[in-house]
């Protein structure tokens, strides 16, 4: 694999981009990180993802792969020498894909309502966000990771959102731990994995980014 | 595989349910089809898909798999003796997953606007619908199938929508063939595969269903 050239087109605060970063990190893949300015996207991004024009894009030996969960599954299939993310059993694979899809369908939209809205809309967002996390906490059950004894596909899909928890809690004025203590314990376990924590954005930087965005919304 | 017990909880006009029917058909898997009354869902459906409470659900030897593309991928992995749906190369697999995801994100919502709305909203829906199909036609290119020389994952994901084309065209007063002639040729090629055409709903029955739904909307 020494000859592999891997480039990641990404945006620092993106929980979707972070999924690719985490997967590459746990697989020990070296890559070139390229930060995109989303208001002035690079020609490479526009050419690599002409359909959605979104980050993240993983470019492996010149060939682009788009959409974060598809990228993670691609990484898992190409670099299959260590840290398998999806289980080998078809039923367990289907279950992992189901929960990753659930996170995609629910977490971003609910989280966004928490930090960008006010009043009733924000309360509804918080309710939806907490219900989503509780559902995930219930799926986690007593297992150390969603992947069972080891960090897996659903763990990758969800852990990147934890970098936003401080922002959701501060701007939404609520405590996630109060509602979902076991999920917060799971976050801690994930962060103890060095490759995972190194690949994640810093919660304080996410918060600064969110505050800057909010003041821009307010000015518009 | 003779001892396998396979049940599909489904709803006849559903393009998502039809994906499971098509995948099971091309794999030659025998199964019990159970039509759901979506206004009075069975206890089995509610227990098998407690998160979304939606069809289709594939129950394989008592274990439920939910979400249509996840079901198709599961079927492809379990019954891997014939008609592979996803290619074996990781990059081609990622591409197939990308286009199936694109269909999921775009087709249903655009199609729904075409047949349930009027006036400007309907025109916008038609525009979006045609643009989506043109994008897919461009991806198909000169290949016989999205899967290349053989019917594959993206073909399964999209062909089920063709059973609704008559409804979209009649209620939207436009011709899909006029905009996307090569895609209509692709539909014909898919329908020549006996196992595929047998598994699809009849366009006239879909139309009757849509008309009944529309008159119910109007009465509300």
TrEMBL record, chains A, B:
Highest taxon of the lineage: Eukaryota
Residue ranges of domain GST N-terminal in the record: 4-83
Domain called GST C-terminal: residue spans: 89-217
Catalytic activity: RX + glutathione = an S-substituted glutathione + a halide anion + H(+)
Enzyme Commission designation: 2.5.1.18
GO function terms (MF aspect): glutathione transferase activity
Locations listed in the record: Cytoplasm, Cytosol
Gene Ontology CC entries for this record: cytosol
Example GO biological process: glutathione metabolic process
Chief location of this protein within or outside the cell: cytoplasm
Keywords: Cytoplasm, Transferase
Record InterPro entries: Glutathione-S-Trfase_C-like, Glutathione_S-Trfase, Glutathione_S-Trfase_N, GST_C_Tau, Omega/Tau-like
The family this protein is said to belong to: Belongs to the GST superfamily.
Described function: Is involved in the conjugation of reduced glutathione to a wide number of exogenous and endogenous hydrophobic electrophiles.
Name of the protein this chain belongs to: Glutathione S-transferase
Species the sequence originates in: Salvia splendens
Lineage, broadest ranks: Eukaryota, Viridiplantae, Streptophyta, Embryophyta, Tracheophyta
